[in-house]
Design brief:
The strands form two sheets. Strands 1, 2, 3, 4, 5 and 6 form a six-stranded antiparallel beta sheet that branches. The termini are far apart. The longest helix has 14 residues, at 110-123. By secondary structure, the chain is α+β, with helices and mostly antiparallel strands. It is built from two helices and eight strands. The protein has one domain. The protein has helices at 2-8, 110-123, and strands at residues 12-16, 22-26, 33-42, 45-55, 58-61, 69-72, 81-88, 91-97.
Protein backbone atom coordinates (compact mmCIF):
# COMPACT_ATOMS: atom_id res chain seq x y z
CA UNK A 1 0.00 0.00 0.00
CA UNK A 2 2.86 2.36 0.85
CA UNK A 3 4.35 1.86 -2.63
CA UNK A 4 1.02 2.40 -4.40
CA UNK A 5 0.34 5.62 -2.50
CA UNK A 6 3.88 6.90 -3.06
CA UNK A 7 3.54 6.21 -6.80
CA UNK A 8 0.22 8.06 -6.96
CA UNK A 9 1.33 10.87 -4.61
CA UNK A 10 5.14 11.07 -4.14
CA UNK A 11 4.81 13.72 -1.41
CA UNK A 12 2.59 11.49 0.77
CA UNK A 13 3.62 8.73 3.18
CA UNK A 14 1.01 6.04 4.01
CA UNK A 15 1.19 4.10 7.25
CA UNK A 16 -1.06 1.49 8.80
CA UNK A 17 -1.08 1.74 12.57
CA UNK A 18 -1.30 -1.02 15.13
CA UNK A 19 -4.82 0.30 15.82
CA UNK A 20 -5.92 -0.61 12.26
CA UNK A 21 -6.19 3.00 11.09
CA UNK A 22 -4.67 4.09 7.79
CA UNK A 23 -2.93 7.46 8.00
CA UNK A 24 -1.40 9.74 5.39
CA UNK A 25 1.43 12.12 6.27
CA UNK A 26 3.40 14.69 4.33
CA UNK A 27 6.91 13.51 3.48
CA UNK A 28 8.19 17.06 3.91
CA UNK A 29 6.69 17.65 7.36
CA UNK A 30 5.59 14.30 8.86
CA UNK A 31 5.64 15.63 12.43
CA UNK A 32 2.88 18.20 11.84
CA UNK A 33 0.02 15.71 11.83
CA UNK A 34 -1.79 13.22 9.63
CA UNK A 35 -4.94 12.56 7.65
CA UNK A 36 -6.93 9.49 8.69
CA UNK A 37 -8.47 7.72 5.70
CA UNK A 38 -10.76 4.74 5.11
CA UNK A 39 -9.96 2.63 2.03
CA UNK A 40 -12.62 1.20 -0.25
CA UNK A 41 -12.73 -0.31 -3.74
CA UNK A 42 -14.38 1.32 -6.74
CA UNK A 43 -13.82 -0.45 -10.05
CA UNK A 44 -10.10 -1.00 -10.53
CA UNK A 45 -8.99 1.60 -8.00
CA UNK A 46 -8.61 1.93 -4.28
CA UNK A 47 -10.15 5.14 -2.98
CA UNK A 48 -9.00 6.63 0.31
CA UNK A 49 -11.85 8.57 1.91
CA UNK A 50 -10.58 11.23 4.35
CA UNK A 51 -12.29 10.83 7.72
CA UNK A 52 -10.35 13.08 10.09
CA UNK A 53 -7.33 15.34 10.25
CA UNK A 54 -5.04 15.49 13.26
CA UNK A 55 -2.83 18.50 13.82
CA UNK A 56 -0.84 18.31 17.04
CA UNK A 57 -3.45 17.27 19.67
CA UNK A 58 -6.45 18.57 17.72
CA UNK A 59 -8.55 16.01 15.79
CA UNK A 60 -11.04 17.43 13.30
CA UNK A 61 -13.72 15.25 11.68
CA UNK A 62 -14.07 15.90 7.97
CA UNK A 63 -17.41 16.15 6.13
CA UNK A 64 -18.60 13.06 4.26
CA UNK A 65 -18.56 14.99 0.98
CA UNK A 66 -14.76 15.36 1.12
CA UNK A 67 -13.39 13.94 -2.14
CA UNK A 68 -11.55 10.63 -1.88
CA UNK A 69 -7.94 10.19 -2.96
CA UNK A 70 -7.66 7.70 -5.86
CA UNK A 71 -4.91 5.06 -5.94
CA UNK A 72 -4.63 3.14 -9.21
CA UNK A 73 -3.75 -0.56 -8.96
CA UNK A 74 -1.42 -2.47 -11.25
CA UNK A 75 -2.93 -5.10 -13.54
CA UNK A 76 -3.94 -8.13 -11.51
CA UNK A 77 -3.12 -11.65 -12.75
CA UNK A 78 -5.57 -14.20 -14.12
CA UNK A 79 -8.64 -11.98 -14.41
CA UNK A 80 -8.63 -11.32 -10.68
CA UNK A 81 -10.95 -8.48 -9.60
CA UNK A 82 -10.90 -6.75 -6.24
CA UNK A 83 -14.20 -6.78 -4.38
CA UNK A 84 -13.26 -5.33 -1.03
CA UNK A 85 -10.59 -4.06 1.30
CA UNK A 86 -10.32 -4.15 5.06
CA UNK A 87 -7.97 -3.05 7.79
CA UNK A 88 -7.04 -4.69 11.03
CA UNK A 89 -4.27 -3.91 13.51
CA UNK A 90 -1.11 -3.57 11.36
CA UNK A 91 -2.79 -5.45 8.50
CA UNK A 92 -4.43 -4.55 5.20
CA UNK A 93 -6.57 -7.29 3.61
CA UNK A 94 -7.68 -7.29 -0.03
CA UNK A 95 -10.62 -9.43 -1.19
CA UNK A 96 -11.08 -10.53 -4.78
CA UNK A 97 -12.80 -12.91 -7.18
CA UNK A 98 -12.03 -14.44 -10.53
CA UNK A 99 -14.26 -16.24 -13.03
CA UNK A 100 -11.62 -18.81 -13.93
CA UNK A 101 -8.28 -19.77 -12.35
CA UNK A 102 -5.74 -21.79 -14.32
CA UNK A 103 -3.05 -22.24 -11.68
CA UNK A 104 -3.03 -25.13 -9.24
CA UNK A 105 -4.48 -24.35 -5.84
CA UNK A 106 -2.92 -27.32 -4.09
CA UNK A 107 0.22 -29.35 -4.57
CA UNK A 108 -1.65 -32.61 -3.83
CA UNK A 109 -3.40 -34.17 -6.86
CA UNK A 110 -7.17 -34.42 -6.45
CA UNK A 111 -7.13 -38.25 -6.86
CA UNK A 112 -4.66 -38.59 -3.96
CA UNK A 113 -6.72 -36.27 -1.79
CA UNK A 114 -9.96 -38.17 -2.56
CA UNK A 115 -8.22 -41.49 -1.86
CA UNK A 116 -7.07 -40.26 1.56
CA UNK A 117 -10.57 -39.00 2.42
CA UNK A 118 -12.16 -42.29 1.25
CA UNK A 119 -9.67 -44.30 3.32
CA UNK A 120 -10.35 -42.20 6.40
CA UNK A 121 -14.11 -42.55 6.00
CA UNK A 122 -13.98 -46.33 5.46
CA UNK A 123 -11.88 -46.88 8.60
CA UNK A 124 -13.91 -44.51 10.76
CA UNK A 125 -16.07 -46.32 13.28
CA UNK A 126 -18.74 -44.49 15.15
CA UNK A 127 -20.14 -46.28 18.22
CA UNK A 128 -23.88 -46.35 18.43
CA UNK A 129 -25.49 -44.52 21.27
CA UNK A 130 -26.11 -46.74 24.26
CA UNK A 131 -23.23 -49.14 23.48
CA UNK A 132 -20.43 -49.46 25.96
Amino acid sequence: MRDLVSQARPDVLAELGTDGLLRLRSTRRPHLGHLQVEPYIEGTRILLRPVAARISRLRVLLPARTRPIPVDLPDLPGGLRLTGIGTAPAELTLYGVTDYWRDRLATIPLSTLLGAVTSAVSTLTVPWLGES
